Amino acid sequence: QVQLVESGGGLVQSGGSLRLSCAASGRTFTNYVMGWFRQAPGKEREFVARINWSSGSTYYADSVKGRFTISRDNAKNTVNLQMNALKPEDTAVYYCAARNEYSRDDNYWGQGTQVTVSS
């Protein structure tokens, strides 16, 4: 059974940093793209960043480019999101996701972790 479990959320002041982790289990993710999404209250879920598990190539939303860094740890089977220079508008529930590069119907989501940035 595939599981994605997020951790590392919390409350931080504006300008601070947090590091989110997503522990992935239940299968090999070599052919998957791993991503982080977020959803603020009253808003739609939006893309934040993604990483190709096998190649390591990354892509970011314009709103977080230069502040957030996504990475993966093959040995620990985790995907991390280092968030620096946080802003109140980064406040949201952050979700980890996995999507098969070759089958868009083969995808998984974590339960989410709350990130709150105070001004």
Please give a quick description of this structure.
0% of the residues lie in helices and 58% in strands. It is an all-beta fold and 119 residues long.
Can you characterise this structure?
It is a single chain. With 119 residues, the protein is an all-beta fold. It contains no helices and 11 strands. The protein has strands at residues 3-7, 10-13, 18-25, 32-39, 46-52, 58-60, 68-73, 78-83, 92-100, 103-109, 113-118. The strands form 2 sheets. Strands 2, 4, 5, 6, 9, 10 and 11 form a 7-stranded mixed β-sheet that branches. The N and C termini lie far apart (40 Å).
> Which term fits the overall shape?
globular
| Largest sheet entry | 7 strands, mixed
Low-confidence stretches: none
SSE pattern, N- to C-terminal: EEEEEEEEEEE
Strand content: over 45%
> Which class do the helix and strand fractions yield?
mainly beta
Tell me the total number of β-strands: 11
Q: What is the CA-atom radius of gyration, in angstroms?
A: 14 Å
Share of helix, binned: under 10%
Rounded mean pLDDT score: 96
Number of separate helices:
0
Distance between the termini: 40 Å
